[in-house]
Design a protein that fits this description.
By secondary structure, this protein is mostly helical. Helix content is 64%, strand content 5%.
């Protein structure tokens, strides 16, 4: 389908949107006219008045949606990130200009570096997207951190392939129509009248039709941009770029959820520039195999019929079917991050544009201190339910070898450190040795209502993992307190603690023994009593 036919189809769909609104308004107007001129009598005045009010209530969201459609493009915000000029980043701009020239299209007016694993072009087009406007190219810094220069050339060639085929203007038509349809449908949400629900259902059905129809056009544009890019950089380079893009998406998602956000629960951030810059360290530490493992662990993404991009497998199959063209793929090309000047300053500036103000105000800690603080907070959280359960069990049960009766609670309270104090590791192990684990302590551990009815082995097996985590938390706190646990900032695993070799080898088995159906704390006590360098 030619660009002209695609434009005609997009305009027809937008005309259908307007016609739907106009038709509904016309139907309301005709109905009101008939009510006033034909059916209005003294006896029906109340009914007619109510109908007129209902018509106005239905017409308001229709008009609101049509107005939103006309102003959607003007209210569209650009990508959030750091705007860089040619003086700031001459090497990156040189690559951008080269890619634009090879695509036969003018370079963008603005280059923005973002914190996303993505790149994209936008154009503030006019007249429903048919008249060109200033173009902006957004490039995600994580792409630069994880790709080679040839792969980034493939990214840029794909984006400028949209420019060369005038797809950004058509995309403006499509996206503007999407915004208008979504706004109009949203206007009907929360409506309580049957009339509003009926009109809203019509817009929802049209919205689904519009999205599916426009997505077909958008996906063909993406495949055309892939072909244009492959003619410049080669199909093999494009295929390698797409595969790398999927790996980087999985790795960055993992990084954002674990490392970048590690300090948030304890109210701190890593050093300036490291919220985004730490991703470089993870990529370097994991290597190809480690990154592939992260991608393999990522849940399979379901195909979205409304996604503007075809599934990756479809794009790869289309590239593999192309005849060889362009330069040969260089898997050992120079890193794209070398295109950035003063990358640390870029990472710091990016935080100012991507982090909310309240996050930027948080204190900063070096990675080791941050990981240690978070690990201690996690350990305290894991241990707290068990410590509270042991305290309650001690207050309610006699202590072996001690007097029973009224003095038991006071003695147990003294053992755990006085009023308000929670049992420490030694007190928890003593409670296990005193036979309180199953079920005096276990019964007092928090659990969902449906698990409260479990008894015997089923109850023990359900609660055992939670008690295991709690004991592990107490052990970690003990080792940190003795200076035997250090923060793990190797980036090859989740942020956590590095334990002495004896603990790494023997801790799991010792905790398992302490929490067995017949508990035995001897292995755990032996670990605790061993010299630090054992």
């Amino acid at each position: 389908m030619t660009a002209s036919l695609r434009a005609a189809r997009a305009l027809a769909l937008l005309a259908g949107f307007h016609l739907l609104g106009l038709a509904l308004l016309a139907a309301l107007a005709v109905t009101d006219w008939l009510l006033v001129t034909v059916l209005f009598t003294a006896s029906t005045a109340y009914l007619v008045g109510g109908s007129l009010v209902a018509s106005v209530m239905v017409a308001i969201p229709i008009l609101r949606g049509m107005i939103a459609f006309l102003t959607a493009g003007l209210r569209r915000r650009g990508p959030g990130g750091v705007v860089v000029g040619e003086r700031d980043q001459p090497e990156l701009w040189a690559l951008v200009r080269r890619a634009a020239a090879e695509a036969g299209t003018p370079p963008p007016a603005t280059l923005v570096l973002t914190g996303e694993v993505n790149a994209g072009v936008s154009e503030r087009a006019r007249l429903l997207g048919l008249l060109a406007g200033p173009r902006t190219l957004a490039v995600g810094v994580p792409l630069l951190a994880g790709m080679t220069v040839p792969q980034i050339r493939g990214v840029l060639a794909h984006e400028f392939g949209h420019f060369a085929h005038h797809d950004t203007r058509l995309a403006a038509v499509t996206m503007r129509g999407r915004a208008a349809v979504a706004t109009t449908v949203e206007a009907f949400h929360g409506g309580t009248s049957r009339a509003q629900a009926l009109v809203g259902s019509l817009y929802v059905r049209y919205a689904r039709f519009f999205l599916r129809s426009s997505q077909g056009v958008a996906r063909r544009q993406e495949l055309a941009a892939d072909r244009a890019a492959a003619s410049q950089v080669g199909p093999a380079t494009m295929a390698a770029m797409l595969r790398r893009l999927g790996v980087l998406g999985a790795a960055h998602g993992y990084y954002a959820a674990t490392w970048a956000a590690a300090g948030v629960p304890v109210g701190v951030l890593p050093p300036s520039g490291e919220v985004h810059g730490g991703f470089r360290r993870l990529l370097a530490a994991r290597g190809p195999d480690g990154l592939a493992a992260l991608a393999a662990d990522r849940p399979a993404r379901k195909d979205d019929p409304y996604d503007s991009h075809p599934p990756q497998r479809e794009r790869l199959a289309a590239l593999e079917a192309l005849a060889p063209a362009g330069p040969a793929y260089d898997p050992d090309g120079p890193p794209a991050l070398a295109l950035l000047r003063d990358e640390d300053a870029v990472m710091a500036a990016l935080e100012e544009h991507t982090l909310p103000a309240e996050a930027q105000a948080l204190p900063r800690l070096a990675w080791p201190e941050l990981v240690l603080r978070r690990s201690v907070a996690d350990a305290e959280g894991w241990a707290a339910p068990l410590r509270k359960a042991v305290e309650r069990a001690r207050r309610m049960a006699p202590v072996t070898g001690r007097p029973t009766g009224a003095g038991v609670a006071q003695e147990a309270e003294a053992e755990v450190g006085g009023p308000g104090a929670l049992p420490d590791l030694a007190a928890v192990l003593d409670a296990i040795d005193d036979g309180l684990l199953w079920m005096a302590v276990a019964d007092r551990m928090p659990k969902p209502p449906q698990a409260a009815r479990l008894t015997g082995a089923s109850a023990r097996n359900f609660i055992r993992p939670r008690i295991w985590d709690a004991v592990a938390g107490l052990l970690l706190l003990h080792l940190v307190g003795r200076g035997l646990a250090e923060p793990d900032t190797s980036w090859s695993a989740d942020p956590g603690l590095v334990l002495p070799d004896a603990w790494e080898k023997g801790m799991d088995a010792a905790v398992d023994a302490a929490l067995a159906d017949t508990p035995d704390t001897a292995p755990l006590r032996a670990l605790l009593a061993a010299p630090p360098d054992a």
